[in-house]
Specification:
Number of helices of chain A: 14
Helix content of chain A: 25-40%
Strand content of chain A: 15-25%
Oligomer: homodimer
Number of strands of chain A: 23
CATH superfamily of the largest domain in chain A: Aldehyde Dehydrogenase, Chain A, domain 1
Structural class of chain A: alpha/beta
Low-confidence stretches of chain A: none
CATH topology of the largest domain in chain A: Aldehyde Dehydrogenase, Chain A, domain 1
């Protein structure tokens, strides 16, 4: 397909600005041919107005219409075939196998939201029927359910060009909620973004949804994102990326005349604790698997294990030696772009400047024709970690840091000092159970997902998934960006008082025509209201 | 009971500051004898640390312990007897009958949250069991549920000295969630606040809950509230009050190094639309009931109908005449305090300065020994309302404004121009149905609760209640401050991956020992996981 480098405003290509950028092949550091056009304020305004108009039409639509849109979008993405995979690989160097898997996850989650809509109980219908004889005053009939918020701005991430990008989890869940989406494409994979945007445009058309239900804007500057978040017709923001970027958008949204929610998933250290029994029994395999997890996708996962806590005992030196060897031996991969390369260099340099940190392997910049960074294992002490918040900086790339504690108490204090994070993992054997239980209890306050004898990379897209966590992991710890409950971010409750059955939305009608689960006078039921 | 004017820091009276204030009797404008002490930064810090310690202990407690606390709190408030009612009446002039009802609502909602805890399904347990044979990789066992956020700051409102104050809905729902509470008492009823705080202290002690689970701080300055919201150990804020106050706290919380959610319920205009059929058939009774609703509690309800939309036709003059008469004839009540008196004077004066508004009755300051304002009916045109956002200012007091539209289309445009609000009401007869349905659809985007042929004052405390709405009605339109789902504001999800059953929280164990409703592999069920 010939790419145009355009923005897509409600289905229409638009390239008003001469300012723009090209995609860069991370394998060669060379720029592509296509010029992508930064969106202008006028283009963003048209996208927002079209989204608002589309919302007015679609908010009355049956859930099946949205479900069909999601299914069609999945099929249109699949119909892009190998061209999509090759384009994404050219822009990200993530490799065809990984990208094939990620495409499956992306289409799978679009279809999973379609199923959620068809099942229908996600609207959280709650009904309390009238009590006309209640004293001193009758009780009114009150019924509530969830409705969409309105147009949503979605900021793509660089590290998942499908699953956290144009048709990723934010778009899928916002669409499922009934919200039009304006995607700010990540400048790291603009060609991939254009292909997916064209697929979504076709899905919008095929599903007879108003074209403003989807727009794509490009931008290599912060202004494009800021303009989008400041637009008065935008009602919510989804974001995956760095702490700096997420916090800047959060601040902008909070300073609007009408503040709006920003669901930003940002940096994370993903602590992993290896307790003595596990180190003794499984030290070798943990070292291998941990090195694999820390370098997976060149360490460019939000859930990469970035901090490894150990108690320094007789079994520790061999585990560290093995881990150091594994990190050193594994081929260092390609980084996504120059920004990430410079970021990991800066972050590791800053950490090594703290006197308490040494590099067991890596910490150096290999001179490759591709963007890269050496697999790096840092080491510090529990004492230093407890005292120095700077050691909680994320190193986005193939870098992890050992925190060597002198005692179980010091380990506990180090865990207590942790900032918010997406995940926390414990490796433990039978002999470690009491300590493991106590640490998990502490970690529950720090993380969105707790993992037992496993690794944080690999996020199941299931109903029960929680991909979120206390700040700075996210700006909204009550929400998730992965899994079915991600839809809740884009919904809000409305109650109806004494409304005639004919005027009630289907989900609240006495007959319960959709057969959804509801809470009626306190009881969970699929039955009609009699 | 002899009052001390102290703050209560984790159960202990504390009066470190000489700065403070007295309560003022709104009937006489005279100050009381007791000096209430503004909390110092050191007192606030002690309260926050004690709350954090209490949280560490209580977050492992069984739901029954919290339920017992809530029940005991209700009983202790009742045990205060008439002294509580008389003290509150002295400080608010709301009258014994209203205060008796409000006390019942307050104890009722404490007990309703206890029931919610005992039933247990509010934790939203979702379980997806492992699929070890899934290709290309096994699916992990993932289970999630909701856990408390941590210490919560609650800001009392002046207009509900029980139900939105020390032991009001924010405290009840935060406690039910498992969060310690620090209440910033409203300076309008400090003696009432001290009585209730003592009752809560007794409940905390009787239920063997750590004393830091509740603190009360006084403050007649904005500094006290700002210091509290800035404290790093505070995890969320509940607020009921003015737009200015709520927004200031929201801004402070958003600017923290670690931002926290602010659930602020603020100003609201509560539009009420009278369609032509209703005006014709029930004009008189609507005029009577509307005047009663607009002046109930001297108009000092968040849900007071502040804007009344009419289409100007043959039946309109008699309805307006009747409404004007009803407003003029009703005895004007006592306002809560000088701040509210000055506020309503300022707001009505500013509105009348817009050329398009006239006063049909009131708009004048009666010279009474008590705080007061004349029952006031303002009138403007649909055209002016559409063009002038300033006409959406709330007039907190016995004031409502007619918006006279020249056509159904102008009415639609006026409704479309509305800002966010807690409630919206339509009065309609059979002949109005098509228009009513279209307007309700528009109003759904503006309000948290839609009312059919009723009045917005009077908020049922039921599971299905939604007391919230788009900004400026609240800072968090996805949440409610009244009803059982208010608890969700103070909870966040945590997922567990491959956790041994013995380490899982009760709500997620295979056996489902509490018999709660869960979603297991997509199905709603109370069954155990087999």
């Amino acid at each position: 397909m010939r790419l145009t480098g355009s923005n897509f405003i409600a289905g229409t290509a638009s390239s008003e600005s001469a300012q723009g950028f090209t995609s860069v092949n991370p394998q060669t550091r060379r720029s592509g041919d296509v010029q992508f056009h930064n969106a202008t304020a006028a283009e963003i305004d048209r996208a927002a107005r079209a989204a608002s108009e589309a919302f007015q039409i679609m908010r009355g639509a049956a859930p099946e219409k949205l479900a069909a849109l999601l299914d069609t979008a999945a099929a249109e993405i699949e119909a892009l075939g190998d061209e999509l995979l090759h384009t994404a690989d050219m822009e990200t160097a993530l490799g065809i196998p990984r990208l094939t898997g990620e495409r499956g996850r992306t289409t799978g989650q679009l279809r999973a939201f379609a199923s959620l809509l068809r099942e229908g109980s996600y609207v959280e219908a709650i009904i309390d029927t009238a009590l006309p004889d209640r004293q001193p005053a009758p009780r009114q009939d009150i019924r509530r359910m969830l409705f969409p918020l309105g147009p949503v701005a979605v900021f793509s991430a660089s590290n998942f060009p499908f699953a956290f990008s144009v048709a990723g989890g934010d778009t899928a869940s916002a669409w499922a909620a009934g919200c039009p989406v304006i995607v700010k494409a990540h400048p790291g994979h603009p060609a991939t973004s254009e292909l997916v945007a064209r697929a979504l445009n076709r899905a919008v058309e095929a599903a007879s949804v108003p074209p403003g239900f989807f727009s794509l804007v490009h931008g290599s500057t912060v202004e494009v994102g800021q303009t989008l978040v400041q637009h008065p017709l935008i009602e919510a923001v989804g974001f995956t990326g760095s702490l700096g970027g997420g916090r800047a958008l959060y601040n902008t949204a909070a300073a609007r005349p009408k503040p709006i929610p920003v669901y930003a998933e940002m940096g994370s250290t993903n602590p992993l604790v290896i307790l003595p029994g596990a180190a003794r029994v499984r030290g070798e395999s943990i070292a291998e698997d941990l090195a694999a997890s820390a370098t997976l996708g060149t360490g460019q996962f939000c859930t990469k294990p970035g901090l490894v806590f150990l108690i320094n005992d007789a079994d520790t030196p061999s585990l560290i030696e093995r881990l150091t060897g594994e990190m050193a031996l594994r081929q260092s991969g390609v980084l996504l772009n120059e920004h990430i390369e410079q970021g990991v260099i800066r972050a590791v340099t800053a950490t090594l400047e703290r006197g308490s940190v040494s590099a067991l392997t890596g910490g150096t910049i290999p001179s490759h024709s591709h963007y890269s960074y050496a697999n790096t294992l840092l080491q510090t002490t529990g004492e230093a970690f407890i005292q120095d918040e700077a050691l909680q900086q994320e190193h986005f790339g193939p870098v992890t840091m050992l925190v060597l504690c002198q005692s179980p108490d010091e380990l506990t204090d180090a865990v207590r000092a942790l900032h918010g994070t997406l995940t926390a993992t414990i490796h433990a054997e039978e002999s470690d159970l009491p300590q493991a239980e106590a640490l998990f209890s502490l970690l529950r306050e720090k993380a969105g997902r707790l993992i037992w004898n496993g690794y944080p990379t690999g996020v199941e897209v299931v109903y029960s998934m929680q991909h979120g966590g206390p700040y700075p992991a996210t700006t909204a710890p009550g929400t998730t960006s992965v899994g079915m409950t991600a839809i809740k971010r884009f919904l809000r409750p409305v109650a109806f008082q004494n409304m005639p059955d004919a005027l009630l939305p289907e989900a609240l009608k006495n007959a319960n025509p959709r057969g959804i689960w509801r809470i009626v006078n306190g009881a969970h039921t699929q039955a009609a209201v009699s």
